[in-house]
Amino acid sequence: MQATLTVIIEKEEDGYVALCPEVEVASQGDTVDEARKNLTEALELFFECASEYEIKERLRGEIYASPRV
Question: What is the pLDDT of residue 5?
Fold first, then answer.
């Protein structure tokens, strides 16, 4: 399976939180690059370990983003 996934990275008080909304997997890091790397690892583990049923249940369709209001 090949898919394009969204990554949202937000600054928090003590670092950065990275989220993939399509499968609701998140991670964190001290820098943007570290948060992205950690999220990539978390996603790889999710897709390796999750059953096909769980992936289908959690995988969302299209994600729409808009600028902050």
Answer: 87
